[in-house]
Every structure is written in C-alpha cells, then in structure tokens.
Amino acid sequence: MNQDLYAVPVELPTWQVGTPGTATFSWDYDEGRAHLLSLYQKGKSKQWDQELRIDWSVDTDPDDPLGLPEFMTPLYGSALWAKLGRREKEELKRHAAAWQISQFLHGEQGAMICSSRLVESVPTLDAKFYAATQVMDEARHAELFTRYVREHIGLAYPMNRSLQQLLDDTLSDSRWDIPYLGMQVLIEGLALASFGVLRDLTKAPLPKQILAYVMQDEARHVAFGRMALREYYAELSDKELHEREDFVIDGCYLMRDRFRWCDVIENLGYSRPSSGDTLPNREALQLFQRVLFSRIVPCVRDIGLWTERVRAAFADIGVLEMAETNLETLMRRDEEIADQLDAQRFAAEAQTRADEVAATIHAGEASRDEVR
Questions:
Q1: pLDDT digit string (tens) for 98-140?
Q2: What H or E segment, with its residue span, contains residue 195?
Q3: N or C: which end of the chain has fewer CB within 10 A?
C-alpha cells in the first residue's frame, strides 16, 4: 500500500467485515417482473468504459481539483477563514477535494461488495440479474475514482468513520434486504445528491464528466432498491418494519455527521470544527446537508417506512421537507445531463476531425498547384 498517497496514516491495507448470510438459488426461470427486467436491460445497454467515455486529457488545477465555489471550502465563513492566506486556502481546497473524492472511492468499493452480496442473497432471479450489472457499474466507478485521485489530486484520505460504521452495519447483517436498504437507499442516495451538488457547481470539465456519468448509473441503482423494497416491506410485520426504521434512523444520523469535514480540519491542525473560531457558516452547511438528503427522504417514504418515528428523525435533522422531492424528475435530469455532455464532446470531436480532413484536402490541393 502506498502510504505516501494518504494525508493521514492508514494502519492496515485491508478492512475485513464478517458477512453472515445465505446464498439463495432460484429455480424459477419464468420471465420475472417486467419493471425489474426493464431496468436490467437498461443496465446492460448502458455499460461504458471509463477509458473511452471520459476525456482524461483535460487539465486539472492542482490547487483546486474540483473547481468549486469558495463557499464549498471547509472553514468558509468562520472567524479563522478571514485570517488565512491564499496558500492556506488552496491547501484547504486540495485536501477537501481529496477527502471528498476518497469517500466516493471508498463508498463505491462498498457498493461493489454490497451489490455482489445482493446477487448471492436476493430470492428472485430478476433481481439477481440486475444486481449483477450493478457489480460491474460499481467496479467501473471505483476504477475511475482511483484514477482521478492518483493522477489529478495526488492525495487520499482513509474512509470516514461514519461511512465505515454504516457499511459495517450493512454488510454484517444477515437479512437479505439490509444491503438494499443500507446501500441502495442510504449510501447511494446520499452519494447521488452529493454528486449532483458538485456536478452542478463545478467549473472544471473533468470532474463534471466523471460525476455526470457516475450519476447516470447510480440513478438506476436507487430505482432498483425502491422497486424491490417497496414490494417486500408491504409484507413485513410491525416488528420487522420497526427494525428497518431503526436502521434508517441510525444510518441517517451517521450520514449527516459524515459531511462536516472534521477529518480535513483536524488533519491540517485547525482543531475540531466545534471550537469557536473554526465554526463554518452554519446556514451554508445546513443548506448543503438538506440538499444531500433530497434523494433519501422521498425514497424512504416510497418504500413504506414513512412512520411517525422516521418523520421525527428527519424533522430533527432538518430535512423533512425533502419528502416532496420528485425522484423521477431528478433521475430524468441525471440522464439528460450525461447525454448532453456526450453530445457536446462527440460533436466537438467530430468537428475537429472534419477540420483535420479539410486541412489535409487543402494542403493536397496547394501541393498540386505548386507542381503545376
């Protein structure tokens, strides 16, 4: 393991989580549910290669790899922020980008492992089919985030403790639906919203491409979780639903605490963000956190866990109003943005090729004129 890549020491090169559970075979080879098979067909047809689809030749600003507005920097709006010089602010930006993309990378590896668990444990064949396409999606995401960290940031952070705890809870549970709930609804839902915030705010073309294309895949993954859990949870007892509510509530508090940049602030020697002069702009942080739950809250309502206890937890976090978000509209927009980027890029490449051909023809004609 390359310790030089990490901003803080990483003790072990691997993290092992016990994964109890049962591998389920299905002998029901009927056609299956149309909505899941349609999603599976889309998962097959939308496979792509990061080597070919992403333009890795685009330059990245080493001092601002994500190209975000200044208010997205840790400590922005605090008393300490006003005292920092240009180089200190650039260092904060670089470390914040490294931390953010590192958490995406770790989360994608977690998603790859969780989706492989789904292939093993879900009881129906149509769900196994789709989960198999998701394993490939998550492998591709982990591959491209690894490349972005190594080649364009040159710095990484270990997995955040809150994310690690939620992944541990998700993977160590023997019930087949918990990887759906932990990964497809909570972790993927929060990642989708975070990707969307960064995609829409960045001025840098490379991270915009990466985030847009990953989001196109992730929107399908969240839809997969919604479809499967909505049907399954309609059949559970009150006691079983209560246990899933506990999981959602605990997981959402963990995810809320994940996006406070504590790891970066502490590592750079600025103490914990709870100290007086390092408190960031509370309004900006709260706004960001509300947006991050825009994919989770309506999904939890949709799958049948919209109980008084869950609503109270969302109200306490300050995201209850996100229940009115239209997930279908958001996912259509995710698809359209990725397709628009493709169209713009390939149109530009086609024009460049046409210009090269025209220049070659012109050069040939000029050469013939000289011979005459």
A1: 999 999 999 999 999 999 999 998 888 988 999 999 999 999 9
A2: helix 188-201
A3: C
